[in-house]
C-alpha cells in the first residue's frame, strides 16, 4: 500500500461503475446504522464479532462462503444501493495513531485523522481511463473529494453504530444463530453470525424500552429482522 499523493499518483485515474478490485470479492460488508434504511430493502443484515477486536460489528451478508459475493456479476453490482464500505474501496484509510479516529474533524468534509492509501497496481486504477484523482495544479478533483468525504462520513457514522451496538449488548438483545442454507450443490452452515433476540426485545418495558426507542435501537432491530427475507434471493443467485 502507498499513501496517496499528487507527487506519486498525479496521473492516476480511478475506474468507476465497474467493480474490478479483488477486495470486492467478500461475503460480508461492515455497514453503518445510518445506511440501514437503504440496506434493509436489499440485503440480509446480521452482526458478527470482529476477529481483530472481538467487538460486535453490523454487517450485510453478501455470500454464503468466504470470497463469494452474490451481489457482484462480471464487475457489475446487482443492487440499487451499494454499502458504504464497498463504495470506499479500493481506498483505505491509513491512521498512524488509532486513537486519532475519535478526534476526526467532519467540519470540512474530509478526514483529518488519517491519510488515504492505495495499491496502485489495483485493476481499479488506470492512467488511461477513468476519472482523474488530481487536477493539473495537484489539487484534489471532485472525484477524490468524494472519496475523502465518504471516509469522513464513515468515521462519524461509526460512532453512532458503536453506540447502538453497545446498547444492544448491554440489554442482551443479541444472540448467536446458526444459519443453515440448502443449495443444489449441498448444504452450508454459517455459525458465526448474531441476530436480534426477539424474545428479549419483546420483553423490554418501562425506562429500558424508552431508552432503546430514544437511541434508535428499536428501529435498528426491526430493520434487521425484516431483512432476512432477502436470503431467498441470495439462494436463487447461488443456485444459478
From TrEMBL:
- In Pfam terms, one family for this protein is SapC
Q: Under what name is this protein listed?
A: SapC protein
Can you name the source organism? Answer: Paraglaciecola polaris LMG 21857
From which lineage does this chain's organism come? Bacteria, Pseudomonadati, Pseudomonadota, Gammaproteobacteria, Alteromonadales
Amino acid at each position: 500500500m502507498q499513501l496517496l499523493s499528487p507527487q506519486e499518483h498525479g496521473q492516476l485515474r480511478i475506474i468507476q461503475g465497474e467493480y474490478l478490485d479483488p477486495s470486492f470479492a467478500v461475503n460480508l460488508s461492515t455497514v453503518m446504522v445510518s445506511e440501514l434504511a437503504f440496506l434493509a430493502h436489499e440485503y440480509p443484515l446480521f452482526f458478527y464479532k470482529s476477529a481483530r477486536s472481538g467487538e460486535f460489528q453490523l454487517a450485510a451478508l453478501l455470500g454464503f462462503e468466504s470470497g463469494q459475493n452474490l451481489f457482484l456479476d462480471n464487475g457489475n453490482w446487482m443492487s440499487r444501493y451499494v454499502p458504504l464500505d464497498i463504495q470506499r474501496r479500493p481506498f483505505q484509510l491509513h491512521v498512524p495513531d488509532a486513537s486519532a479516529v475519535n478526534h476526526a474533524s467532519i467540519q470540512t468534509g474530509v478526514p483529518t485523522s488519517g491519510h488515504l492509501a492505495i495499491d496502485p497496481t489495483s485493476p481499479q486504477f488506470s492512467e488511461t481511463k477513468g476519472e482523474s484523482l488530481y487536477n493539473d495544479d495537484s489539487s484534489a478533483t471532485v472525484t477524490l473529494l468524494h472519496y475523502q468525504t465518504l471516509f469522513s462520513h464513515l468515521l462519524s457514522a461509526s460512532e453512532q453504530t458503536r453506540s447502538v451496538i453497545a446498547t444492544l449488548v448491554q440489554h442482551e438483545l443479541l444472540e448467536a444463530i446458526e444459519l443453515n442454507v440448502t443449495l443444489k450443490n449441498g448444504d452450508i452452515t454459517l455459525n458465526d453470525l448474531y441476530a436480534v433476540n426477539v424474545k428479549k426485545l419483546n420483553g423490554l418495558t418501562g425506562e429500558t424500552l424508552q431508552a432503546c426507542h430514544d437511541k434508535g435501537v428499536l428501529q435498528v432491530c426491526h430493520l434487521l429482522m425484516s431483512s432476512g427475507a432477502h436470503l431467498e434471493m441470495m439462494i436463487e443467485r447461488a443456485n444459478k
